[in-house]
Design a protein that fits this description.
Layout (H helix, E strand, L loop, with lengths): L1 H14 L17 H17 L4 H7 L5 H30 L1 H24 L19 H33 L7 H34 L1 H21 L13 H14 L33 H4 L1
Helix pairs in contact: 2-6, 2-7, 2-8, 3-4, 4-5, 4-6, 5-6, 5-8, 6-7, 7-8
């Protein structure tokens, strides 16, 4: 954790400069940390808390075979992780972290509300007749509401999780200060500690509520927590330092890949270190004959 936190800190410090910020006089600082950390922690409790028992909900309420239910949950989990890449790209290149986290918070809230409604409104789930051993199969409309709720939760997770930690670091690096590194160390420690505690609460308290108090309360509590998460983040808006979006690292990487592919059949000149860019006082490094087309982006 220490090494990952240190590497994250270096990336965040390198990617944040005072010229990238909007007018940030009097903005940011430690006072913004409760809003950001509470937003992330409550999102974790809400989204992680509904996962362990979801297979039981699909089997017992939606009469879904265990194989189909497992596939659906795995797809749902994969979507949440894959969408984090797009969330990070959009925040870095177009919308900025504050707006992406705000969109993600309300997307997760809507998804959890729809999921809660499937437990509250009988018409949104398959009917179970008293004389039947099981429930009827779900209709297309009922499945659509279920899939919509899962999709919105995945979009929310993909927006919040990649941006939250970086947005918090933005608040502590708006001014050059000798205490920046110490504050970032403390921030990362508290951030990862709170995430760990949130996961424990999600996998114990929320699961206990679902098993003992039923699905209505078991899904209602995560929805309320997500509402508090969104409200907490929005309440801190006047205090945030908001970084203007710039060029994403993913965009730069893709540009290098495209140029390398386009130049893969070009004839290379004789090996001569004068053709290649070298930083001052650095040792020259002449490429080998293998995959030399990857060096062309450095020559442009």
């Amino acid at each position: 954790m220490e090494s990952s936190g240190a590497s994250s800190k270096k990336l965040l410090q390198n990617g944040t400069s005072s010229s990238d910020h909007e007018s940030s006089e009097g903005k940011g600082g430690l006072r913004t940390m409760p809003f950001i950390i509470v937003n992330e922690c409550l999102e974790k409790v809400a989204s992680y808390g509904i996962m362990p028992n979801m297979i039981l909900y699909l089997m017992n309420v939606y009469a879904m075979p265990i194989v189909d239910g497992t596939k659906l949950i795995n797809t749902w989990s994969a979507m949440s992780n894959v969408l984090s890449i797009f969330g990070a790209f959009i925040s870095d290149s177009y919308l900025g972290r504050f707006l992406v986290i705000s969109i993600g918070s309300f997307s997760s809230l809507l998804g959890l509300i729809f999921l809660w409604l499937t437990a509250m409104i009988p018409e949104l789930r398959p009917s179970c007749e008293p004389l039947m051993l099981g429930c009827n199969s779900a209709t297309a409309g009922q499945l659509a509401v279920l899939f919509l709720s899962m999709g919105l939760i995945s979009i929310g997770a993909g927006c919040i999780r990649p941006c939250s930690i970086a947005f918090g670091a933005d608040q502590l690096t708006i001014k050059e200060s000798s205490n920046d590194e110490r504050l970032l160390d403390s921030y990362f420690n508290w951030y990862y500690t709170s995430i760990g505690l949130s996961t424990v609460i999600a996998l114990s308290v929320i699961v206990y509520i679902q098993e003992n108090l039923g699905w209505k309360i078991g899904f209602g509590v995560p929805a309320v927590l997500m509402f508090l998460s969104a409200v907490s983040f929005i309440l801190g808006s006047p205090f945030y330092a908001k970084v203007n979006p710039g060029q994403s690292l993913l965009t730069s990487f893709l540009q290098v890949v495209v140029v390398a592919v386009k130049n893969r059949k070009l004839t290379l000149p004789d090996c001569n270190s004068d053709h290649y860019y070298q930083e001052r006082d650095s040792d020259p490094m002449v490429p080998t004959d293998s995959l030399r087309y990857l060096c062309f982006p450095n020559m442009i």
